[in-house]
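Extended Data, panel c. Modelled sequence:
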Amino acid sequence: MVNILLIEFTTLALLPWVYLTVFVVPLLLLDVAVSVYLRGRPGTLGEIGRGMLIGCIAGPAALAFFIPLYFLAAATGLI
C-alpha cells in the first residue's frame, strides 16, 4: 500500500516533467528493480515483489485513464 501511495503521489503531484525526469524516474527505476528482485523470491517476499510491481503500474495507469477523460469532458463542455 505504501508503494502505491508513493507512486501515485509522485506521478500526480510532481507532474512538471523536469521534476519527473530528474527526481522521480531514477526512484521508479530503483523501485522496479527491487520489485523484480523480490518477485523472484519464494513465499512472502515474492508476494511483496508482485505487489510492488502492481503499485508501479498504478500511477501511469491512472494517468492513462483520467487524462483522455478530462479532454473528453473539456471538449463536450462539461468542464
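The chain has three helices and no strands. This feature is highlighted in the accompanying rendering.
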